[in-house]
Amino acid sequence: MSYKLLFVCLGNICRSPSAENIMNHLASQRGCANAIACDSAGTSSYHIGASPDRRMRLAAKERGIDLQGEARQFIREDFEKFDLILAMDRDNYRDILRLDPEGKYKDKVRMMCDFATNHPDKDVPDPYYGGADGFNYVIDLLLDACGGLLEEVMKNQDKY
Ligand code: 4NP
Predict the structure, then answer these.
(1) Contact 35, 155 (CB under 8 A)
(2) Which helix (H) or strand (E) holds 61?
(3) Rounded to two decimals, what is the model's pTM?
(4) Nearest CA to ligand 1 atom 9
(5) Are strands 84-87 and 109-111 parallel, antiparallel or unpaired?
(6) Is the CB of 137 under 6 A from ligand 1?
(7) Which 8-state DSSP code applies to residue 50?
(8) In DSSP terms, which residues pair with 5 in a beta bridge?
(9) Burial category of 67 from C-beta neighbours within 10 Å (exposed 0-12, middle 13-18, buried 19 and up)
(10) What is the per-residue pLDDT across 31-44, written as a single tens digit (0 to 9) for each?
């Protein structure tokens, strides 16, 4: 059984599809693609059905990563379906846990940046209204955080 990871941002067109595809990319590179299953979602309904943002795809492509996916909204059922849910920023974290008022799934929800080892950021910054630098930074930060996350998942693999 693979370990199921869900990456969550606001629109599901920039940060979370990047995290999902970067995680798959790193797992393939390290020969452990079968150990994980990744998906992504947005807390909002703004972009349901949309492909990843063109500017985000360009930044990822420059690092050799193709972004695939179709935006969907995070739903309550995701709490049961996934082993770990990664919020890109504090607003995402709060909005996810708002759907779990009893706190039943609180331990499954973590901040993406907790897994970064080379970046001090607490949040993956929202690049949507900024320039190319912001999109490139998201890729760099997510390469770091996904690397740390993959290491953590593989270390604990025998527990799952
Ligand atoms: P994401 O970026 O949450 O990383 O997908 C955004 C996408 C769309 C909007 C904001 C952030 N928006 O306001 O439409």
Answers:
(1) no
(2) helix 54-61
(3) 0.98
(4) 11
(5) parallel
(6) no
(7) P
(8) 38, 84
(9) buried
(10) 999 999 999 999 99
